[in-house]
Specification:
4-stranded antiparallel β-sheet, single chain, 7 strands, 3-stranded mixed β-sheet, mainly beta, 122 residues, Immunoglobulin-like, 1 helix
């Protein structure tokens, strides 16, 4: 078989689920930087921020907290994989979400997330 035919078969098999996508994933890591703003445009300080992605069928989660300016950073994020970013309030409610894909090894992607307060009426 020629190279193109083999590559086409691998891509097709991956799309059909016969081969895990991680085999075709790009190598390397990058960084996701972000900022959190409250609905009144003030920084969301000391918020729990979680990154989540799947590697080989296993969920990988990293947790950081936003700084005094509402900024956060995740290093070592895999290239070519969608990484979900979830923000929680002090009561563990989700107050914001975003996602990013690192395009190449060593790249940095910036995510801005507007958080919203959770109101529970009882």
């Amino acid at each position: 078989m020629r190279y193109r035919e083999v590559l086409s078969l691998l891509v097709l098999a991956s799309l059909m689920g016969a081969i895990p996508c991680t085999i075709l994933a790009q190598a390397g890591t990058g960084t996701i930087n972000g900022s959190l703003l409250n609905s009144d445009s003030t920084p969301n300080v000391n918020a729990k921020v979680s990154s989540l992605y799947y590697a080989g069928g296993t969920a990988v989660e990293t947790v950081v907290y936003s700084d005094a300016a509402g900024n956060f950073s995740f290093s070592g994020m895999p290239v070519g994989t969608r990484v979900s970013v979830v923000v929680y309030d002090a009561n563990k409610h989700v107050v914001g979400m975003g996602s990013a894909v690192i395009g190449s090894s060593g790249a940095t992607v910036t995510v801005s997330i507007q958080t919203v307060p959770v109101v529970i009426q009882g």
